[in-house]
Amino acid sequence: MDAKINIKKQLKISIPIAFENLINILMTLVDTLVISILGTTELAALGAMGVILDMMQMSIKTIDVSNNTLIAKAIGEKNKQKESLMIGNTMIITVLLSVIIILIVFIVRPIFPSLFKVDKICITYLSIRLLGFLQSSIVTVLSGFERTIGNQGNILELRIIAVIFNLILDLQAVRLGYGIQGVAWVTVWIDTALAIYLLIKSKNTVKYRFVKSYFLEIFQLFKWNFVERIASRIDNFIFNLIVARMGNLEYAVHVILIQIANIYEAFIQGFGDGLTISVGIASGNKTKAEMENVKKVAKEVITIGSFIFPILIFIIAIVVMKISLKEPELQSIFYKVLPLLMIGTYVTMSATYYFAILRGVRDFEFLAKRNVISSIAKIILAFILSYTPLGIIGVWGAYLAYGLIQKYLSKNRYKEVFA
After folding, report:
1. pLDDT band at 380, cuts 50/70/90?
2. What is the pTM of this model?
3. How far apart are CA 27 and CA 54, in angstroms?
4. Which of 88, 274, 391, 395 falls between 20 and 30 A from 256, CA-CA?
5. Orientation angle between helical segments 212-244 and 364-385, nearest 10 degrees
6. Backbone angles phi and psi of 326, in degrees to 5
């Protein structure tokens, strides 16, 4: 990959990754919509196990992000040997961690029906999905590697094909009477096919040889990246509980708002991942001029995105509201909270400049501590404001404060790093 970057090249890196993140959300959405045909029992079982699978996949995504920053640095260093060995050692960690996760979840799975108060069919669904978890992990890490070395378009095309096949086969499974088990098997088959394809595609660029220094370097970043992500998962869980106890009307609106927020956060995360790759390459290049060029391009790209993206999210939000929230009471609540969502979209997009650069220079320890601080502040503020007349508006004010705190802390850290 050419280390010299401009706006056009940066968009060519970032946009496919951003859309791929959206498509990954669509994969889950397709399963949910198809299962909803079967009834609420199956839908509740899938939803509950979706929480478990999300936690499992979080660990693998953490490895993926850690690996990508190190691969980008190796690209900047023009060290092909290091690239091959780094991804090889990441794959070793991925396989080991996946096996451990599968064993733990397999052992504790009998408690899930009573824990989530759903039908025991959830155990059948989860057991089948466990058979494909290793393949899914391989796909996550190898597709991240392919994106980092410049094959963003190819991976996006692959994901689009997977979503289409997932929808077709899910509908066939339900039509033929295989139910939730059939939908689970479809996901396993698709993950297996993707894993085989990516393993074949990468066989000449990945070297599976244990190198202690690389192994430890990956694990060190993984440790802090895991803390950053688990803090976000926990605060989102508590955040939802706070709103859930406020009443059905407020929670119904909140669910829709959170889904919209998930859409823009996924897109912005992917967009930022593209910037992180460029920053990582520049850090490996070790020339101040190259880093300054990347920062300049990143600033221009984020400035454009900060203007356009909130407008797009506003349009999406209104369309989703018209479809999902038809009662006047629900729409009234939605319109009151919508300004906070829009400001939050802008804050997140503009702050991505600092997030992406700090990830690119592998400052994961700071990012982890930042997330813990901002998450604690968000939960305390949301809890207090939920008891005031502001209600759900106050709670979403805490959501906005969370983004502002993250941006403030990241901006200060950015100034320290590049002082």
Report:
1. very high
2. 0.80
3. 13
4. 274
5. 10
6. -85, -25
